[in-house]
Specification:
It contains 14 helices and 16 strands. It is an alpha/beta fold and 418 residues long.
C-alpha cells in the first residue's frame, strides 16, 4: 500500500505525462475509461449496494440517495464522461497576443494546473466526473471520497485506471486515497510540493477544515442555501412549476431550493396553490411569523420558522417560507443568509429582474428559472468538478476551462533588456 507521500510523488510524475498529451490521446484515454466502466458495471453496482446497506444504518435517507447509483445513474455518469470527449480541449488556447516595441512577441496560453486534490463526500459520481475533467484538462488527480462510498469508489477507480493503462497513460494520473482518517487528510493538505490545488465538495465543516489546515490553495463552494423570490408580478402557474422543480426534483443536492421569499401582495393568492402543489411530495413548510399568522396552518406539514431555519441547507423536503414587503427586502434576506450559490427571482417585470441580478452577488443568479440548472452538464460544460462560491479564479460550476491556468510565452530574436 502506497504511502500518501508516494501517491503525491507519483501523481506529480504522471501529471508531466498528461500535460503533454495531445487532445486525441486524451480523448482515447477517456474512451477507454468509459469502456472499462461499462465492462465493470456489475462489479460497480454490487459494490454500491454494499455501501448503501451500510449507509442505511448511519445516514438519513437524503444522504443514502446521494450515494446510490441505482435507477440508471451509473449509465448517466458514463454518458457524462462520453460528453466530455466531445468538448473542445481547453489546453493551448491563445488568450492574448501582442508585440512589444522592442520586438518581443507575447502570447498568453492556457495550461493545466498540475495535480488536483479533490475531497468529497457521499456522491460516487464525483469520482468519474473529476477523473474525466482532470484528464481532459491535462491534470492528474488524487481523490479522497467519503467512507460511506469507499467500496464503490475503489471499484470505479480501478476501472478508470485500467482504461488509462490501455491508452498508455500512467494509471497514477487518477488515484484514490482510501483512508477516511482526518489525520491523513491533514497530511494531504500539507503536500504543497506535489499538489497544486485543493477542491473540496461537501458540507461547511469540510470546507472550513480544508481552509484552516491547507498549505495548498483551496477553492471553496458546494454548500448552497438557495433562494427564490416570488415578485408580485410573477406568473402564478409558471412559478408553481419552477418552485416544484427547484424543491422536489432532487431535494438532496446543493442547488435545490431552500427558502422561498414571497411578496406580500402575492401571498394570499399564491401560497394556498403552492401548498396544494407540493403536498403530493410531502413538503414540510417552515413559515415565518407573518405567514404563520396569515395562513390557516394545520397538520404536521407546517412548522413555525426560527432563525436557524434561514441558515439551513435542507437537502430534504423542507422549505423555508418568508413574506417580504419589497424586492429590496428579499435581496437583503439573501445577502444575510445566502451562501453565494444559486438565487433567483420569479417576475414579469424586466426592471425588477435586472434590479435583482445587479443586487444579488451569487455565483449563479436566475430570472424565471429553477435553481436546479446550476450544474456543469446543464451549462453545456460536460461534467463538473464542483460549484465554486468564491470569487477568485473560478466561480459557479467548474468545468474544463476552470481547471486550467495560463502561462506567458515570449518569442524573441536574441533581445536583451537595456
Amino acid at each position: 500500500m502506497k504511502t500518501l507521500l508516494a501517491m503525491a510523488q507519483l501523481a506529480k510524475s504522471a501529471s508531466h505525462h498528461v500535460r503533454q498529451a495531445s487532445a486525441e490521446a486524451k480523448n482515447l484515454a477517456l474512451h477507454k475509461m468509459g469502456a472499462s466502466l461499462k465492462k465493470q458495471r456489475e462489479a460497480i453496482l454490487k459494490a454500491n449496494l454494499v455501501d448503501i446497506e451500510k449507509a442505511k444504518a448511519d445516514l438519513p435517507p437524503h444522504m443514502v440517495d446521494r450515494l446510490s447509483l441505482e435507477g440508471g445513474r451509473l449509465d448517466a455518469i458514463i454518458s457524462d464522461l462520453e460528453t466530455v470527449i466531445q468538448l473542445p480541449d481547453p489546453v493551448g488556447k491563445l488568450l492574448e497576443e501582442r508585440t512589444l516595441p522592442n520586438g518581443l512577441e507575447l502570447q498568453k496560453v492556457t495550461v493545466p494546473i498540475g495535480v488536483l486534490g479533490i475531497i468529497y463526500e457521499a456522491r460516487p459520481n464525483v469520482t468519474v466526473d473529476v477523473a474525466s475533467l482532470a484528464l481532459k484538462s491535462g491534470n492528474a488527480a488524487i481523490l479522497r471520497g467519503g467512507k460511506e462510498t469507499l467500496h464503490t469508489n475503489i471499484v470505479i477507480t480501478r476501472a478508470l485506471q485500467e482504461g488509462l493503462e490501455e491508452a498508455s497513460f500512467p494509471k497514477e494520473a487518477i488515484q484514490l486515497l482510501k483512508s477516511p482518517s482526518r489525520l491523513q487528510l491533514r497530511r494531504l493538505l500539507k503536500l504543497d510540493a506535489y499538489i497544486d490545488l485543493i477542491i473540496p465538495r461537501g458540507g461547511e465543516g469540510l470546507h472550513r477544515f480544508c481552509k484552516e489546515h491547507s498549505y495548498i490553495p483551496v477553492i471553496t463552494g458546494g454548500m448552497g442555501i438557495c433562494h427564490l423570490f416570488l415578485d408580485e408580478s410573477a406568473d402564478i402557474e409558471k412559478s408553481l412549476e419552477v418552485i416544484y422543480n427547484a424543491k422536489t426534483q432532487r431535494p438532496s443536492v446543493c442547488n435545490a431550493l431552500d427558502t422561498l421569499l414571497i411578496h406580500r401582495n402575492a401571498f394570499a393568492l399564491f401560497f394556498p396553490l403552492l401548498v396544494k402543489k407540493l403536498a403530493e411530495k410531502g413538503v414540510i413548510f417552515h413559515l415565518d411569523e407573518r405567514a404563520w399568522s396569515l395562513f390557516p396552518h394545520q397538520g404536521e406539514a407546517f412548522l413555525r420558522a426560527c432563525e436557524k431555519d434561514w441558515q439551513t441547507e435542507w437537502m430534504s423536503l423542507h422549505l423555508g417560507v418568508k413574506i417580504v414587503d419589497s424586492l429590496q427586502e428579499a435581496v437583503e434576506h439573501i445577502q444575510t443568509y445566502g451562501t453565494g450559490h444559486s438565487d433567483g427571482i420569479l417576475t414579469s417585470s424586466p426592471v425588477n429582474g435586472e434590479a435583482f441580478v445587479r443586487a444579488v452577488d451569487s455565483a449563479t443568479v436566475y430570472i424565471n428559472a429553477s435553481t436546479r440548472f446550476t450544474d456543469g452538464g446543464q451549462f453545456g460544460m460536460g461534467a463538473e468538478v464542483a460549484v465554486s462560491t468564491q470569487k477568485v479564479h473560478a466561480r459557479g460550476p467548474m468545468g474544463l476551462r476552470e481547471l486550467t491556468s495560463y502561462k506567458w510565452i515570449i518569442k524573441g530574436n536574441y533581445q536583451v533588456r537595456k
